[in-house]
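Try it yourself: sequence plus 4'-phosphopantetheine, in.
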Amino acid sequence: MTTIAVIPGSFDPVTLGHVDIISRGAKVFDHVIVSVLNNQKKQPLFTIDERMTLLRESTKSLQNVEVDSFNGLLIDYVREKGANTIIKGLRAVSDFEYELQMAAINRKLDDNVETFFMMTNNKYSYLSSSIVKEVAKYGAPIDDLVPPIVEKALKKKFS
Ligand code: PNS
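Structure, out:
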C-alpha cells in the first residue's frame, strides 16, 4: 500500500520549522502533499500562489513532496487525495490542546484517517510564521529562521 500523507497549514510564509517537519515526514511516507488552506478569514501577507511558490522552492530537493492548496474541510481534501494520514508538527505543550481537538474532530469525521504528530526540532521550537513576519518587519536578521527564498520575499514585502 502506498502511504500518502497531507501536511496542511497556512504557511504564511513557510519557515525552517515547517521544512524540518516536511523533510522528516517525507522520510516516513511514500508521498507527502503539503497543502495551503485557501479560505482563511485572517488577512495573509502572501497570496496563495506566492505561498505555494515559496513552498515549492523550499522543498524542491524532496522528490516525493508535492505542493497544493485546499478549501473547506481538511478531512474532505484528505479523502479526495486518497491520503490516509495528516501530519502535524508540535512545537510545545501549548500547541497540544488545539491539535488534540483538531485530531479528535477529524477522527470523528473519518476514523480511517490518522493524525500523525511529529515533535518540531528543538532549535525551531519558538518559531512561527507570525514571529518571522514580526522580526522581518523591523529589519532584524531572519536568515536562520526561513529558507533563503523566503528571506528575499519578506525583505521585498517590507521594503
Ligand atoms: O498553519 P495553521 O494556520 O495552524 O493551519 C491550520 C489548518 C489549516 C491545519 C486548520 O485550520 C484546518 O485544518 N483548516 C481546515 C478546516 C477544517 O478542516 N477544520 C477542522 C474541522 S472544524
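One thing you can check immediately is this: The pocket of 4'-phosphopantetheine is lined by residues 8-10, 37, 73-74, 102, 105 (CB under 6 Å).
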